């Protein structure tokens, strides 16, 4: 008998599907290195693309979110799930295995998930003075990227940068 290979589905993807978010088009990456740039055209019709990696992969999630431009959002599981918390942990622990509770929590998180640039601004060192921003490499790269965005997105992010505490 010939063996048939079935595509594997990540537990994080199954968690999203268990929550009844079938229209979400959940896609598992199998690790932070699982993304392939050739897949970018598959997301061309999506108005929003949410990147949800483990908590300890926030930098990678920000970088991946940027590849989707202003459509990209970064979803970070809460701290109480531990340093490696992921979507499956959020269902099992945070929502106590209740798919309906997980759906509610996830919908709220999706509605408030920041852009990759907003998240990067939030993560800047708090002691970085405004007059030092031009000397900071990460900020310089951030400003270059913001300069290529539309005026509304650019201005909102610049306001976040100047208002950060």
In the sheet with the most strands, the strands line up as: 1-2
> What number of structural domains do the residues give?
2
> Which structural class fits the helix and strand makeup?
mainly alpha
Task: Tell me the major beta sheet.
Answer: 2 strands, parallel
**Poorly predicted runs of 5 or more residues:** 1-7
Distance N to C terminus: 64 Å
The whole-angstrom Rg is 18 Å
* Number of discrete helical segments: 7
Folded structure, characterized:
- The longest helix has 14 residues, at 99-112.
- α1 (11-18) packs across α3 and α2 (58-66) runs antiparallel to α5.
- The protein folds into two domains: 1-116, no CATH class; 124-165, no CATH class.
- It starts with 10 loop residues before the first helix and ends with a helix.
- α2 links the parallel β1 (49-51) and β2.
- By secondary structure, it is mainly alpha-helical.
- Mean pLDDT is 83; it is low at 1-7.
- The relative contact order is 0.11.
- It is built from seven helices and two strands.
Which properties best describe this structure?
globular, two-stranded parallel ribbon, 2 domains, mainly alpha, 2 strands, 165 residues
How are the SSEs ordered, and which strands pair?
Layout: H1 11-18, E1 49-51, H2 58-66, E2 72-74, H3 87-94, H4 99-112, H5 116-122, H6 137-147, H7 151-163
Parallel strand pairs: 1-2
Helix pairs in contact: 1-3, 2-5
What's this entry about, in short?
The chain is 42% helix and 4% strand. With 165 residues, it is mostly helical.
């Amino acid at each position: 008998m010939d063996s048939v290979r079935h595509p594997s589905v990540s537990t994080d993807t199954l968690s999203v599907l268990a929550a009844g978010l079938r229209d979400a088009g959940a896609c598992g990456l199998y690790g932070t290195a699982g993304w392939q740039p050739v897949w970018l055209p598959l997301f061309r019709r999506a108005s929003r693309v949410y990147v949800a990696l483990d908590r300890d992969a926030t930098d990678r999630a920000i970088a991946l979110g940027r590849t989707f431009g202003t459509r990209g959002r970064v979803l970070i599981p809460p701290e109480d799930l531990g340093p490696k918390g992921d979507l499956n942990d959020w269902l099992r622990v945070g929502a106590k295995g209740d798919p309906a509770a997980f759906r509610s929590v996830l919908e709220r998180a999706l509605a408030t998930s920041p852009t990759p640039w907003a998240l990067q601004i939030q993560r800047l060192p708090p002691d970085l003075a405004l007059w030092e921003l031009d000397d900071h490499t990460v900020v310089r790269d951030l400003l270059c990227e913001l300069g290529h965005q539309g005026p509304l997105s650019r201005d909102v992010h610049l306001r976040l940068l100047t208002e950060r505490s």
